[in-house]
Amino acid sequence: MTTPLRPEEALASLRRAGLATQIDAAAFAAACDQERGGAPLDAEIALSALASVYGVRGPSEASAVDRAFVVDEHAAADPAVLGAAWLALERWLEHPIPVSVATDLDELVSYAGDVCFLRRHASAAGEAPYLFSIDRWRTGDDTPYSLYVLRRDGAPLYALGVPVQLHVHPDTEAAAAGVFRTDGLTPSYREHAARCAACRDALRSAADRGVLPDVFRPLLG
Description:
alpha+beta
């Protein structure tokens, strides 16, 4: 049987992952009590408490300092929430995000995750962060929510003991590795390839071998 956590232990675990850094311990303990409803405190409930304090409608004062934000399923389509997430990701990444991907949370997150991945793909930008998410349920009302986090190292997030997702589109990851799929050109890779010598070399090599899909050919210049 798992030993229940104390609020201070749960808070310390979150802080090791760079979360809850500006959250008052008493406020976090109160949120834990509210979320657990008499049940033993565990990592799941601690994350629900974190979401409660951060707020579940995108970046807040408490979450933005940690380069993180929470969105629950009821808020995901709200233009105000999408706009706040869009502006925060642009600011944190110092990269313009097209309006075309900013009207849907999944597309916005996919694009931002690709930007992070492709920066790491470029050797000169090996310290760029990745975009991670943790998808859970608020224990109080069983509402799904997602915690989005920018981190250079995902290990402290994985150490929380819940599933963690690294965001990168499979087609983007494949193209960065020189595997070009039919209809697999993503907006982020289109932007990136123009500035990446290694990607341009891979594109030319695939074209020379006759295996470059037509959708990628405009990138040859």
